[in-house]
Q: What sequence folds into this?
């Protein structure tokens, strides 16, 4: 039997909703021939889809929610009926690791975290505090003090940021030509127009599903 582990299962079900509805619609017009023994696997598949739809109904959201696909590099804002309110092309984390030159330090994983989160903070004119890995990647000396001016950068994250984890957010980009690619260091980038739309409509506490 086909099963998707939670929490990704809920996201996958939302993404499969149109296809499942189409399949069930066609199933309603099946002729008696579909019940013949050689077509039993098809009938079982339809039954499994009905089971998945039942699971979807059991997880019906009370508020709109965001779906971030690191597979298709999209950010979807959906209403509680699963209708798409906004479909934004995004750039998501690159599936790679960056090794620290210090053997005793853990490596950095730049993949966007997967799972169910929520909108924690909404920030206007976010500041990028340049992390250690950014200096190391560019071959620069890492500043000793956190308040070092070389760490503080304005304007590179766009006009707004929507945090769904402490160090992960949806934000803008200076290079919109790279949207649609898996190239970031974990955060999710969208265009300035999509960012403004999401910032104005999304509320704190709304679910964020990343898969």
A:
């Amino acid at each position: 039997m086909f099963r998707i582990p939670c929490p990704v299962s809920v996201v996958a079900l939302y993404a499969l909703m149109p296809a499942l509805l189409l399949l069930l619609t066609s199933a309603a017009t099946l002729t008696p021939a579909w019940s013949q023994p050689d077509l039993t696997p098809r009938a079982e598949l339809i039954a499994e889809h009905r089971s998945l739809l039942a699971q979807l109904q059991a997880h019906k959201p009370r508020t709109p929610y965001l779906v971030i696909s690191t597979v298709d590099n999209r950010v979807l804002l959906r209403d509680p009926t699963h209708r798409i309110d906004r479909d934004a092309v995004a750039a998501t984390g690159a599936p790679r690791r960056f090794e620290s030159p210090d053997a005793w330090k853990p490596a950095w994983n730049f993949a966007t975290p997967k799972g169910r989160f929520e909108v924690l903070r909404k920030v206007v004119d976010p500041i990028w505090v340049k992390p250690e890995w950014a200096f190391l990647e560019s071959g620069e000396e890492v500043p000793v003090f956190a308040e070092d001016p070389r760490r503080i950068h304005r304007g590179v994250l766009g006009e707004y940021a929507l945090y769904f984890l402490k160090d992960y957010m949806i934000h803008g980009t200076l290079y919109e030509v790279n949207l649609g690619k898996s190239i970031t260091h974990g955060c999710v980038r969208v265009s300035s127009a999509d960012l403004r739309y999401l910032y104005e409509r999304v509320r704190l506490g709304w679910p964020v599903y990343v898969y």
